[in-house]
């Protein structure tokens, strides 16, 4: 019996303590008509040996250096020590630290995480994590709406924001859908031009969302956008790539007053791609907003002998106390991923993190140059980029992707479905994991593919 | 213990993680660049490994301690599930990697969808919600979408028992519904007469956990389903307590229309110190068209993702990609290890352990909240008589348990039972381990009677004593201020 330790003698003794004869009697309170008598329509269990074989056969084949997809999930080198330590059973198999005295490991680690995120983003405070970047953004918007207390409800969402994030906003903000306004981008520059805001009615504006870098890898004019929003009395919600923040201006310093709320996808900080999850969402804000901040928060305090300790705090915001009036329904979040990210940030430090950002940027620029040197391939946007860029191809994108995939190359993310005006365009990413040979191979494969059309 | 920041030395760097850099960032305008390096720890790799390894030893966990935290199902997390989901091909697969190179991965998800549909008695499953509360949100949004699709636009209320998990009312409120609390009787059942009076044309549905948070099977479930369905409402099943009924009764057969499962509870994926979880949502024929995306379909050519064109009535997307895919793989592996019979034994032994422990603790002298009822996979004892006689609270007992190297049960939930301890041993603990727990609880009862002051001071043997939570909330210190 997998993972059930009872011997037949144990079972006999336990049943006799309960004064019953068989296990079936334990379920006698289930009404007869509902009680199930036939077995599940499932295969029998298999040994660990055979299940190992099954998973080895099903494991996707991923050649090192062969994929150039970014689009919200980024391949970075993860130092071996990160998951060696994060996978320790004491981190892996504990739960939410309700009993603080027996959970100081997780609690102190989260306090360190909150400190690191606040410093990286130039913000005052951070929570202990949300599910992922997209759902963190939905929570950030809900938070902004609570801060505006119904007085202003309109949210500006630029189309330069990740399409999947915009879809998640639509799902989670369904009760507010009429207030979500999508802002188009300028076609030849791929960013949210602050000049375009001047003629737009700002009545009822609660918050604007600024992605940095945006979905196309392009850098937004964060200062001008931030100042504009603040002049209208609206809040600024930054959605940022945390690795990029080691190189780019931190949201706390955007414009005159800085962003008000900052969120994003934590995956680049030491979390494997793993088909999209588990990742973690981060959320930082001004200290005065703390009572509207959703999710767990860890605070530092002491015991009666004056010893420093850490505990979950401000739990009166949360669902297990406030129920229908809570700041969010979130309960379990992404603790283990925060553990890995904290270890990752400690290992890299400010210098290592900036190095990863700078090398990724450099590789993306090299690749952009070499790909756009192929006849017929052009760079779509003229603005500066971080580690991703958009190219236009002289043949259908999905056809190119299919042909390159046959050579084991995952060449990028096709924009056909999400941006009809960019139907022959491909979003390409390169990070520090790519070598000069990888970049060269991509150029050669693409050139060959286009020549054979 | 020192913070990692306090171990920092200016100029120290873990240089194995520095890459050669020959470029520049002159193409980025000055006003978009950061002024200086972020102020993170400057430490060696050994500093980091030692610091976090030492921190880990300040945690209780399933791997190191009995962890009878009620409502959380802290069972053993098989190492095979963790290791096999961490094979490099699974870890390195990008979420947008082509379907052609992902058939094995998609097969795992598809089979997990099918297995979960079978064990819940539902028609279809979407795996994407990232935790139970997201599954709840999805289910409630699906119920709303169903009513709207029929032009039934005035169903603005969600009925929720007063003993429900806090996430239930919070999820309903997030969807814009009004929450109406349904009382429970002193026997622990839902008050049917009140329910019948509350259900009506405004009722969107009811959210129920069965067995309830009292650890009791709701015997009148068929009557409840009838009342709510006749009023035009739908039934949501909170799968938090599914570990009690696997193979004995299925939510779909009880009359539920939509539900979520907590894979980090019933399907043994590690809790990670507060996540990640996964909260797949399952629906019957009536509601399956509204399930969130993405889902996996099997066709002659192979497996593929379903999109909005396939499912135009879907409530949409809840995560940027596929939710907590790695957690789903772990759950899949667990289902393959257990199979048909193993899955059923889970609940038989979870319930055996809970009832055995409840009986033994009663014999030792503790007061059970619902005597005479059969426990499900968990049960409640109330410390109220001990509070009255000796001034000792449920919290005091919880803290004293830590000194005996046992994590504490859930305390003060459900709120309906005063001074309660919600105890869930799970099926993976042996009789001998349960007997040890009974011994500890007997010793603690003795201490309560002869030295109640000791419990007030507990825990005495941990790295810190009871922390000043009022100070933590009043003088917020949420991050180390930069020097």
How is this structure best described in words?
- The complex is a heterodimer of chains A (453) and B (483).
- Chain A has twelve helices and 13 strands.
- By secondary structure, chain A is an alpha/beta fold.
- Chain A has two domains: 264 residues, Type I PLP-dependent aspartate aminotransferase-like (Major domain) (Aspartate Aminotransferase, domain 2, 3-Layer(aba) Sandwich); 101 residues, Alpha-Beta Complex (Aspartate Aminotransferase, domain 1), CATH 3.90.1150.10.
- In chain A, α3 runs antiparallel to α10, α6 packs across α7 and α10 packs across α12.
- The mean pLDDT of chain A is 96.
- In chain B, the strands form three sheets. A seven-stranded mixed sheet of chain B has the order 1-7-6-5-4-2-3, sandwiched between helices. In chain B, strands 10-11-13-12 form a four-stranded antiparallel sheet, with helices on one face.
- Chains A and B meet through α1, α2, α3, α4 and α5 of A and α1, α2, α3, α4 and α5 of B.
Write the layout of secondary structure elements.
The complex is a heterodimer of chains A (453) and B (483).
Chain A lengths: L7 H10 L30 H11 L21 H7 L2 H4 L11 H18 L3 E2 L6 H15 L6 E5 L4 H10 L7 E4 L21 E8 L9 H10 L3 E6 L20 E5 L15 E5 L12 E5 L5 E5 L6 H4 L12 H38 L5 E2 L8 E5 L4 H10 L6 E2 L10 E5 L6 H16 L2
Chain B lengths: L44 H12 L22 H7 L2 H4 L11 H18 L3 E3 L5 H18 L7 E5 L5 H8 L3 E5 L9 H7 L4 E6 L12 H10 L3 E6 L11 H4 L3 E4 L19 E3 L11 E5 L2 E5 L18 H40 L2 E2 L10 E4 L1 H7 L3 H10 L6 E2 L8 E4 L7 H20 L1 H6 L11 H6 L9
Parallel strand pairs in B: 2-3, 2-4, 4-5, 5-6
Antiparallel strand pairs in B: 1-7, 6-7, 8-9, 10-11, 11-13, 12-13
């Amino acid at each position: 019996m997998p993972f059930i330790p009872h011997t037949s003698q144990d079972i006999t003794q336990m049943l006799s303590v309960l004064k019953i004869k068989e296990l079936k009697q334990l379920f006698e309170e289930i009404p007869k008509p509902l009680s199930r008598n036939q077995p599940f329509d499932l295969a029998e269990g298999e040994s660990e040996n055979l299940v190992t074989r099954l998973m080895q056969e099903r494991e996707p084949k991923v050649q090192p250096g062969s994929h150039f997809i970014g689009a919200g999930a980024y391949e970075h080198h993860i130092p071996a020590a990160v998951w060696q330590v994060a996978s320790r059973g004491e981190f892996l198999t504990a739960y939410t630290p309700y009993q603080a005295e027996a959970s100081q490991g997780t609690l102190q680690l989260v306090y360190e995480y909150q400190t690191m995120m606040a410093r990286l983003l130039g913000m005052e405070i951070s929570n202990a994590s949300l599910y992922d970047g997209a759902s963190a953004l939905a929570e950030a918007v809900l938070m902004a709406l609570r801060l505006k207390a119904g007085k202003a409800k309109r949210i500006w969402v630029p189309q330069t924001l990740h399409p999947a994030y915009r879809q998640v906003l639509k799902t989670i903000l369904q009760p507010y859908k009429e207030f979500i306004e999508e802002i188009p981008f300028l076609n030849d520059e791929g960013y949210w031009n602050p000049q375009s805001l001047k003629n737009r009615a700002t009545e009822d504006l609660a918050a604007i969302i600024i992605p940095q870098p945006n979905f196309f890898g392009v850098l937004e004019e964060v200062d001008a956008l931030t100042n504009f929003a603040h002049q209208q009395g609206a809040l600024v919600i930054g959605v940022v790539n945390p690795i990029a923040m080691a190189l780019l201006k931190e949201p706390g310093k955007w414009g005159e007053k800085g962003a008000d709320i900052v969120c994003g996808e934590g995956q680049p900080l030491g979390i494997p791609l793993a088909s999209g999850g588990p990742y973690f969402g981060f959320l930082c804000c001004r200290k005065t907003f703390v009572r509207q901040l959703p999710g767990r928060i860890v605070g530092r305090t002491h015991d009666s002998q004056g010893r420093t300790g850490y505990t979950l705090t401000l739990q009166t915001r949360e669902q297990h106390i406030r129920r229908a009036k809570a700041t969010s329904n979130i309960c379990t979040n992404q603790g283990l991923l925060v553990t890995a990210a904290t270890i990752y940030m400690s290992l890299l430090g400010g210098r290592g993190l900036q190095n990863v950002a700078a090398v990724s940027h450099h590789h993306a620029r090299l690749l952009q140059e070499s790909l756009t040197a192929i006849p017929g391939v052009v760079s779509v946007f003229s603005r500066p980029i971080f580690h991703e860029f958009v190219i236009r191809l002289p043949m259908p994108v999905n056809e190119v992707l299919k042909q390159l995939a046959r050579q084991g190359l995952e060449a990028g993310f096709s924009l056909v479905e999400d941006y009809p005006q960019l139907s022959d365009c491909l979003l390409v990413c390169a990070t520090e994991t790519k070598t000069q040979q990888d970049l060269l191979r991509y150029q050669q494969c693409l050139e060959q593919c286009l020549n054979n059309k | 213990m020192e913070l990692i920041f306090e171990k920092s030395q200016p100029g120290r760097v873990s240089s194995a993680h520095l890459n050669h850099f020959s470029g520049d960032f002159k193409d980025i305008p000055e006003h978009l660049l950061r002024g200086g390096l972020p102020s993170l720890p400057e430490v060696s790799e050994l500093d980091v490994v030692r610091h976090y390894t030492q921190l880990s030893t300040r945690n209780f966990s399933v791997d190191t301690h009995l962890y009878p935290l009620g409502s959380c199902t802290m069972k053993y997390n098989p190492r095979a599930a963790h290791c096999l989901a961490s094979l490099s091909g699974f870890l390195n697969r990008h979420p947008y990697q082509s379907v052609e190179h992902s058939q094995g991965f998609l097969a795992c998800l598809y089979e997990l969808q099918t297995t979960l549909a079978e064990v819940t008695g539902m028609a279809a499953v979407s795996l994407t919600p990232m935790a139970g509360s997201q599954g709840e949100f999805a289910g409630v949004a699906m119920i709303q979408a169903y009513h709207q699709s029929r032009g039934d636009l005035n169903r603005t209320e969600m009925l929720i028992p007063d003993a429900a998990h806090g996430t239930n009312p919070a999820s309903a409120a997030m969807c814009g519904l009004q929450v109406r609390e349904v009382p429970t009787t002193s026997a622990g059942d839902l008050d049917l007469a009140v329910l019948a009076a509350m259900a009506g044309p405004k009722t969107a549905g009811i959210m129920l956990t069965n067995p309830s948070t009292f650890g009791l099977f709701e015997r009148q479930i068929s009557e409840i389903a009838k009342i709510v369905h006749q009023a035009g409402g739908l039934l949501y099943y909170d799968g938090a307590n599914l570990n009690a009924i696997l193979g004995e009764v299925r939510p779909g057969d009880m009359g539920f229309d939509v539900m979520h499962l907590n894979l980090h509870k019933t399907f043994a994926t590690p809790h990670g110190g507060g996540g990640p979880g996964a909260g797949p949502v399952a629906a019957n024929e009536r509601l399956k068209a509204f399930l969130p995306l993405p889902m996996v379909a099997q066709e002659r050519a192979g497996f593929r993702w379903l999109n909005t064109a396939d499912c135009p009535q879907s409530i949409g997307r809840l995560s940027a990609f596929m939710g907590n895919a790695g957690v789903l793989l772990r759950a899949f592996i667990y289902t393959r290890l257990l199979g048909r019979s193993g899955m059923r034994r889970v609940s038989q032994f979870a319930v055996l352990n809970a009832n055995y422990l409840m009986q033994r603790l009663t014999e030792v002298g503790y007061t059970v909240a619902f005597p005479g009822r059969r426990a499900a996979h968990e049960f409640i004892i109330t410390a109220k008589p001990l509070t009255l006689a000796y001034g000792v609270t449920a919290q005091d007992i919880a803290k004293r348990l830590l000194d005996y190297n046992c994590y504490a049960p859930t305390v003060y939930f459900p709120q309906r039972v005063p001074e309660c301890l919600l105890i869930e041993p799970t099926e993976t603990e042996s009789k001998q381990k349960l007997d040890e727990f009974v011994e500890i609880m007997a010793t603690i009862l003795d201490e309560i009677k002869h030295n109640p002051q000791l419990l007030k001071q507990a825990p005495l043997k941990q790295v810190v004593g009871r922390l000043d939570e009022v100070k933590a909330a009043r003088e917020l210190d949420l991050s180390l201020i930069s020097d």
